[in-house]
Amino acid sequence: MEAVSLRKFRRENNFLERIVGKKAFWLILASFLFVYPLARSFKRELPPPLPKLYKIPEFNLLNSFGKPYGSKELKGRIYIANFMFTSCPTVCPKQMKKLQEIQKRIRGLNKKVVITTFSVHPEVDTPKVLYKYARKLQANPFVWSFLTGPKDSLKDLITGGFKVPIEHSSKDSTLFDIVHSEKFVLVDSDGWVRGYYATNKFSLNQMMVDVGLLANRS
Q: What pLDDT, on a 0 to 100 scale, did the predictor assign at position 150?
């Protein structure tokens, strides 16, 4: 009598409970949760390409090892260019600190992206001086190059090619007489300028996004 009563009042599982209790349900759910984000990523469109602003003319300078370095060595590589001089007491130290961070952020891009620093005071910044400066910054020579060369050639390249200002207010310029751009310039693997960026956090993050887009498209 008691057994009959228990069977009478036992609640039967509804349809949803029966489905959830099956192993096949959890297998199908796990597969869906894995495949759905993957399928969405295939459908996601990349932002439009960055504009091609200026074509950098062919150039050939010297790196911190005293070896020729220029357009030939940079061909096929995306690079971030900046402009400084080693004895700069104002904006350059902050700029170099930002580049140390950028060097870490591009580490996984397999040398597709490099940093190229141009001296605006080549009379002082010889390859030997640049070498010591690069060592102090712990610059990876395979990723970050420091360039110098004839003053007129550098000025023509920086102002005419990269389209950024540089000015020596007198023939015998002091450290405070040299004016140069604080901008970072993004150049693609074909030598086209694709963007200019300030040193603030927002602008640098945007530059890294743009670097990634160029690297993926190339």
A: 95
**What mean pLDDT is reported for the chain?**
82
Q: ∠125-169-121 over CA atoms, to 5°?
A: 5
Q: Is the pLDDT of residue 81 over 90?
A: yes
Residues 13 and 84 in one domain: no
Report the distance separating Cα 61 and Cα 153, nearest Å: 9
Distance CA 71, CA 142 (A): 16
Distance CA 47, CA 49 (A): 6
If DSSP codes are grouped into helix, strand and coil, which group holds residue 61? strand
Query: Is there a contact between 145 and 64 (Cβ–Cβ < 8 Å)?
Result: yes
Same domain? 38 vs 142: no
> How many domains is the chain partitioned into structurally?
2
The torsion defined by the Cα of 33, 35, 40 and 46, in degrees rounded to 10, comes to 120
CATH code of the domain covering residue 104: 3.40.30.10
| Short-list 112, 154, 114, 129, CA closest to 65 | 129
β-pair partners for 138: none
Residues 25 and 128 in one domain: no
Runs of H (alpha helix) within 57-200:
71-74, 92-105, 127-136, 151-156
Classify residue 68: in a domain, yes or no: yes
**162-211: per-residue pLDDT in tens?**
998 776 555 554 444 555 578 899 999 999 999 999 989 999 999 999 99
Same domain, 35 and 105: no
Q: For residue 163, what are the domain limits?
A: 54-217
